[in-house]
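Exercise 4. Each item below gives a protein and its sequence. For each, produce the structure-token representation.

Item: AbfB domain-containing protein (Actinoplanes aureus).
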Amino acid sequence: MYRVLLRISTLVSLVVLTVTGWTLAVVSPAAALDPFTGYLMAHFIGESASGEQIYLAHSKDGRNWTDLNNGGPVLLSTVGTKGVRDPAIVRSPAGDRYWIIATDLRIASGTSWSDAANRGSKSLVVWESTDLVNWSAPRLLNVAGAIAGAGDAWAPEAIYNAATGDYVVYWATNSAMNGVTKHRIWYVRTSDFRTFTAPQLYIDRGTGQGIIDTQIIEVPNSLGGYRYYRASADGQITVEGSNSVLGTWTRIGDLQHLGISNGATGGNVVEGPMWAQTNGTNEWNLWLDQYATGRGYMPVTSTNLGSTQNFRTRTDYSLGATRKRHGSILNLTAAEESRVLAKWGRTTPVNRIQSYNFQTRYVRHSNLDIRIDASVSPAQDAQFRVVPGLANNSGYVSFESVNYPGYYLRHYSYDMVLAPNDGTTTFAGDATFRQVAGLADASWSSFQSYNYPTRYLRHYNYLLRVDPISTTQERADATFRITS
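Answer:
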């Protein structure tokens, strides 16, 4: 699906809008953004329990990506369906405010695609930040509720529109019109991602052709003949140009000549077009999600967006450890890049948790249950990252799975399980422990439950749980060593 690359470096006047009456209030012009030095990708990874959340990746060259936050989710939705897909990251013209907007959809909860499309959420999920690293709690933006017969609100994007001094938020909604039910692109205008105008139809391809994924970028100096370009998954990957976000768009072409389509003509079937300019150049990469083959994103490159014949495929890229699904790329200034990497760029070592009284055995997950075993295979089932405690990051720790990023050891009815972080305070408390001197040997460690401090992590018949500890046997069972 879709994203937003906000590339405004000229002086603009911000306009504050209110839904009732559209009162205008002029704000001082925005300063030009500093030169860009890196890239940030917001994305999700798939339909697993924690895969439909917000993940981030970083790149220095715009082609080779490194997962941030050890490959785990950075933001969790606790509203609506409690899952998000297709995130778009938006920067204000002044570079002093950011938003992430995403589809409110969690297929992992058991809903079907038919239910999601016809009886799904009509809201988008929104996070807001002033520094790109500290984000607000998520909130819902009911953009499609006023569309007659709306079944969903998918694949949101947003772009600042200098002509009107506000943001155009656009997305796909499945609804009936003129006797045809399909996805069309709708839009609203907003100044604050809280209040917005009535939804208006934006793109309708006619006949029975639906469209879900589209993304608009602004091109400096109107390179190729147009100020704005948009790429849409509408059977082809169609590229259009315009000099106005809300004006008339001209079809430039598609990518059939590269053997790439959105299904209408076969070949490499892709979706989720995602634009990114290579810093300091006139080169643009259009990233396409090879969902039909499960290979993830691939870039096609152009130095003149005015003709799709200028696009070429490339192979000099890498995507990191996680599969990256529909997202967006933001070019970063040096200050933004420094903040992002300081927050999420450090790599936490991979460790194992060794039993004190069965020293050939290590803590591992098996079918999401937790036990101690010897000769663990695959080895990653017994590998964890010891991270600051989810409920208290001072003197407490949590254990994140290496091969299931975003999953943590937590107790449930005193039994230990591996579970995806759902963002609740209950989960955080259940997954947090105080590391203390080993109850059987002070050179080892024991782990005291955060929310049940009279209980400790221990094994019983090789299965892990949290229990009160009093006997010599129990102290040995509750003693472990963090090792490589």
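Check: Helices lie at 113-118, 334-344, 425-430, 472-477.
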